[in-house]
Amino acid sequence: MSNKLPDINTHFSDWYNEVIHTAELVDNAPVRGCMVVRPYGWSIWEHIKDNLNDRIKKTGHHNASFPLFIPESFFKKEAEHVEGFAPELAVVTHAGGKELEEPLVVRPTSETIIHFMFAQWIKSWRDLPLKINQWANVVRWEKRSRPFLRTTEFFWQEGHTAHETHQEAVEEAELMLQEYVNLCHNILAIPVIAGIKSNREKFPGAEKTMTFEGIMPDGKALQMGTSHLLSQSFAHSFNMQFQDRNGELAYPYLTSWGTTTRLVGALVMTHGDQKGLILPPRVAPIQVVIIPIFKAGQEKDTLLAKIQEIKAQLEPKVRVEIDDSEHKTPGAKFYHWELKGVPLRVEIGPRDLANNQVVVGNRLTGTKSFIAIDQLSQVVPSLLDDMHHALFARAQERQDKVTHNGEKLLNFGPIIAEHNGAYKTGWCQRPECEDELRQYKATTRCILTTHHFTECFNCTRPSVSDVLVAKAY
Amino acid sequence: MSNKLPDINTHFSDWYNEVIHTAELVDNAPVRGCMVVRPYGWSIWEHIKDNLNDRIKKTGHHNASFPLFIPESFFKKEAEHVEGFAPELAVVTHAGGKELEEPLVVRPTSETIIHFMFAQWIKSWRDLPLKINQWANVVRWEKRSRPFLRTTEFFWQEGHTAHETHQEAVEEAELMLQEYVNLCHNILAIPVIAGIKSNREKFPGAEKTMTFEGIMPDGKALQMGTSHLLSQSFAHSFNMQFQDRNGELAYPYLTSWGTTTRLVGALVMTHGDQKGLILPPRVAPIQVVIIPIFKAGQEKDTLLAKIQEIKAQLEPKVRVEIDDSEHKTPGAKFYHWELKGVPLRVEIGPRDLANNQVVVGNRLTGTKSFIAIDQLSQVVPSLLDDMHHALFARAQERQDKVTHNGEKLLNFGPIIAEHNGAYKTGWCQRPECEDELRQYKATTRCILTTHHFTECFNCTRPSVSDVLVAKAY
Question: pTM of the predicted model, to two decimals?
C-alpha cells in the first residue's frame, strides 16, 4: 500500500510521470528521448491500432510499407517542408563501415518518399484515387521528451492519398478527421475539439491542416492528431503527373493524416485519478480481473475451479485475467489492479460461491455490487459499456470546466499564463495578433467553425471566426 | 497478354525478380538495399503476422516495444556479438543539427537493449519466466540485396525470454522453433528442414542456434528463421542477476528467436509457376476473385446484383473481390489474377446465372468446374483447403527431388557448384572440414537429428551426426 502517487490536483505532471511508470506502461530507455513501452502499455496501443486500422481499411485504404531512410535531397524538394523538419532530423552518415555518399535521414514523416513512389504509380486517372496507409516508427529529435506525449521515436499511422480533384481531397481529409474524432469519442472516451490550424501552426507544405485537440484536466491542450490537405505543392515538387479524363496532363491533389502513441498519454491524463489509471474499457488490455478470496484450510481448489469456469464463461465477450498468486493479500491485489486501471474487479470467496454470486467492484465509481454468477456474462459487458459512457461524460464535464469564453487577451492571457485553461475567443486571423499569445505561453490551437465573437482577441478588427487558445503539450 | 515472365526453369532468379514486381508485391526504393512493399505484398505479410502473433500470444508471450536506436557502447558489451554485427551497422552520428556525443546504432537486432532492460526488471525468481516479443523493423547494411530475401531494412518479430533454468530455456527455444515449423507447414504450405547451426553459422553470442530451412525449387537453401539458446553469456554481459528460490544470486538463461519478411520471398519461390504467383490460400490477400462475363446489351445489372449477392454469401468465410472494371476484357482479367496468384476464380455469365451455377477456375491445377450457386459457400472453403494440401504436397515432392544423399564432398561438391541441390551427408563437426565446402560455394545449413552416415563428408573420421549441405540464399 506504499507508493502513493503525487497529488493529481496539485502536481498533475508529476502524477502523470509516476503513474505511467508504476503502472508499468513505460520505462526509461537508455537512449535520450526514447521510450521502452512495456507489455501493458503496448497492449493499449495495439487495441487502439486494431480499431483505427479497421476504420482505415473500411474507408478504402490499403496498408503498405516504405523505407525508414530517406535521402537528404528528398527533403530539399519541398522548401517549406525541409525548413519545418530540418532542426528535428536524425541522420545516418555511416553504414557498413563506410561514410555514405549521401546522408540518410531517419524519417520524421514520409510524404517525400511516398510521393516519390506515387509519381511512378500514378499515370492515368484510372490509377486514382490512390489511398495508402502505413503503420510505422518515426523519429523527431526532441529537446524535451515525455513518454507517449513527446518522444524522439514514436509510433503512428500515416495515411497518404492522391485524388483527381481538389474537392475529393478535401472530402478525404475531412473524412479521416471525422474517423479520428469518432475513435476518440467512441473508443477512448475522450471528448475532442476539431478545427483548423492557423498558417503558423499548420504542417510544413500543407494548404490546410485540420486537428483534433483534447483539453487535459490541467487545462492544457493536447494535439492528438492531424489531417492535412496538401493540395498540389508536393505533387509539383515530385513531378507527379497523370493523364486526366480529357487526355491532358494534370497534377493530383494530395492528403496526409496521422495519429500516434500520444493517444495513450491522452487517455492516461483524461481518465486517471489519485489511485492510478482508469482505462477506458474498449482499449483496456484487461477488462475484468478475478480475485479469489480464501483463507488457509478453506476449499481453495473448489474456488479456483469455479473461477476458471467463470473466466471461460466471460472470455468470448471480455478480456479477463485471474490473479491467484498466493504471495499477495487480496488487499495488495486490489491496490495493484486499481493502480493499473482495470475497469471491473470480480471478488469471490467461499461464502459467495455458496450463494452463487460474486462481488463486482467498479474502478470508476468505487462501488461494489453482488451479481449472480449465471448473470455475469450478460451484466459485465453492459457494465463496461456504462463505464465507457460515464467516462466520456465525466471527461466532457471536466473539459467544459477548464474551457472558457474570453473576449480580450489582456484579460484572459494572464490567467492562462498562471493557471492554464483553454479559451474560445475571436480572431482577425492576422499573425501579428497570434504573436501576442506568446507572452502568455499560449498558442492558437485551432480555428473553430463557430462565429460567436465579433472582435479579435487582440486588435479591434472584426473576428473572421472563433479560435481556441491555450498552452499546448 | 504481354509481359511474359522469364522461364522459371532456366532463369529462376530473373523470374523471381520479375514476378514480385509485375504482381505488385514490391517496388524498388530510392534508398540502396531497401524495398517499398506495395499493398498486395504487405497484405500477405499482415496475414503471416496475424497468424504468428496468435501463436506467440497463445504460448504466453507479450508484445512490447524497444527503441530503434542502440548506444554503440551496448554492442561492445558482448564480444562475439559486436564482432558479428559490426560490418553491417548503420550509424546515426548527427541529430537535431548537432554531432552526437555517442553515435547511435540503428538496431540490427535488439538483444543488447532488451537485455539492458531485463536486467532492471528481473530481481527475483518470481519475475521469471519473462517472455517478450517485438514486431519491428531492423537494419543490416547489405552489399547485395534482393527484395524480401535480403534487404537493408527488413521487418520481423524478435522474441526474447529469460528463464530460471537451462532446461526451461532449451524447451522455450525448441517450442518456438516448432511454432515456426508449424507456421510454414500449416499456413504457408512450405516444407522445411529443422536442425542446429554449426558453430560457424550460429548467432554471434549464442550457445546454440536452431534453424528451419526451405529448399527452394532451384536447389538452394533459404534460412527462414532461427531460434537461439543464448544461455548465460548475455546475462553476464548485462549483469542480469536475480535472487533464486534459495535466496542466492543467479543469472537467468536467455533465448531469442525471430522470423522475417523473408517468408514472403519463400512462398513466392516455393509455389509460383510460369504464369506468376500461386499464393497459399491461408495467407492470400484475395482468396477468390469473381469476374462477370457479359457482352454489351446483355443484362449487366442483374448479373452484377447477383455477383454482389454471391460475394456477401462468401464473405464471412473467405476473402473475396469482384473485378467488374469495364475497360478490360475477361481474358485480360484472367491473365491479371493468374499473375497475382489468386487461388480461385469465379466466372459468371448470363447463361450461368440462368442455370444457377458458376464456373470455378483453380489457379493451381488450371482446371474449371461448374458449381451450383447455393453450394458455393460450402464448396469454396473446402477447395481452398484442398489447394493448401496440394501445394504442400507438391512443394514436398519438389524438395525431395532436389535433396539428395551424398557420401563424399569430392563427388557431390562439384554437382552443387554447377547445378545447386541440397545434400544430406555425414560430418565429423570439425570446422576444418566445413571449410572445404567453400570451394563449391556451399555451407552447412544445419546439423540434423538423424545419423545415417558413418563417415565425415571430407575426412575419414566418424560422423557425429548427419548434416545438410547446400548453397544458401
Answer: 0.96
